[in-house]
Specification:
Helices cover 63% and strands 9% of the residues. It has helices at 2-56, 97-102, 123-129, 132-163, 173-178, 183-193, 199-220, 231-240, 254-278, 290-316; strands at 63-64, 68-74, 77-85, 90-96, 113-116. Strands 1, 2, 3, 4 and 5 form a five-stranded antiparallel sheet that branches. The chain is of the alpha+beta class. α8 packs antiparallel against α9 (254-278) and α9 (254-278) crosses α10. This is Abortive infection protein-like C-terminal domain-containing protein. Residues 234-308 form the Abortive infection protein-like C-terminal domain. It holds the Pfam family Abi_C. InterPro entries: Abi-like_C (IPR026001).
Length: 318
């Protein structure tokens, strides 16, 4: 009986060994598939990052996908995250409801943990973030931001068009070519749109816009900038290059014209003074009046249009 018992035990062990080995191999295969799939997910997100980067063509875009819940970290607290695209990189923003409570329930990037895709090592949560709904929401958010940019560009063109008259057609095709696309239009519109939101910021943007126009003029005219950095130095160099204004009847109004061009210089210099004392360039708690910001923006627009028109005239005589 003892021999039979031992035989039965041996037989039982012999039969169980192949079964356990098979389950181990199956589990190992499953684990490898999980690792491989997670690697594919990470590679897929890198493709999404590249596609987004190529699609926005260098535009300054900031967009977030939908909020994805990772899991519970306390009885009434949850950890969550979202995909974010900053115009160049795909990033992961994470936080939890306990952290949000400290900011009165309003999450924003400053209170969230930010990681680039290569630095985010939580594969389980990355898998949740890589869901079709999450990725689709990010694409939709980026598309919406690009539409906003288009609206801003169209608004810039419309505002400049309304501001200029027939004799100073600031956005005709030839002049747009001289302006290297809509770069200056966007700069001017950015200053324009900030007037009623942040007048100090508008003053700074207006001055930067006029500086850009002056540098463009000098560059196209091949006039060395040298150490010229301030708007006063730039506008003086630009105005000094203007061709003489000839009155049709031959009357000498050179003094009046000189005074007028002096006014052009004064306007540009004034934008620089306002930027220094009321703008955001040098920090501090500065408060500017919207009316002053609007006046500065309008006058800078007039100077820019005249400057670009003079440049256009120079280019035609080449």
């Amino acid at each position: 009986m003892q021999i039979c018992s031992e035989a039965i035990q041996f037989t039982s062990k012999s039969r169980s060994t192949p079964s356990m080995t098979t389950r181990k191999e199956a589990l190992s295969r499953l684990a490898r598939l999980v690792v491989e799939t997670r690697s594919e997910i990470r590679a897929g997100l890198q493709v999404v990052e590249n596609d987004l980067r190529e699609s926005v063509s260098g535009l300054d875009v900031y967009a977030c996908g939908q909020r994805i819940t990772f899991g519970r970290i306390d009885e009434d607290a949850w950890e969550y995250g979202m995909l974010n695209f900053d115009g160049n990189h795909l990033r992961i923003l994470t936080s939890d409801t306990m952290e949000d409570a400290q900011y009165r329930g309003t999450p924003y990037e400053g209170s969230m943990t930010v990681r680039y895709l290569s630095d985010f090592n939580d594969d389980e949560n990355l898998t949740k973030l890589a869901s079709p709904a999450s990725i689709d929401s990010l694409w939709l958010a980026v598309e919406e931001k690009v539409r906003e940019k288009l609206g801003e560009a169209k608004s810039a063109a419309r505002l400049l068009s309304e501001f200029s008259d027939d004799q100073s057609e600031s956005i005709d095709r030839d002049l747009s070519g001289l302006m290297q696309g809509d770069y200056f239009e966007k700069q001017w519109a950015g200053a324009r749109l900030a007037i009623d939101i942040d007048a100090s910021d508008s003053l700074t943007r207006t001055n930067q816009f006029l500086e850009s126009v002056c540098r463009h003029y000098l560059d196209m005219r091949k006039i060395p900038l040298g150490s010229k950095k301030t708007i006063t130095e730039l506008i003086n160099a630009v105005v000094d290059d203007f061709s003489p204004i000839i009155i049709p009847d031959g009357t000498d109004h050179s003094k009046d014209i000189k005074s007028l061009l002096g006014g052009v210089k004064s306007i540009a210099q004034g934008t620089g003074v306002l930027r220094t004392h009321l703008g955001t360039a040098h920090g501090g708690d500065k408060v500017a009046n919207a009316d002053i910001a609007r006046l500065s923006n309008n006058l800078a627009g007039a100077v820019a249009i005249y400057t670009l028109q003079k440049l256009k005239a120079h280019m035609k005589t080449r």
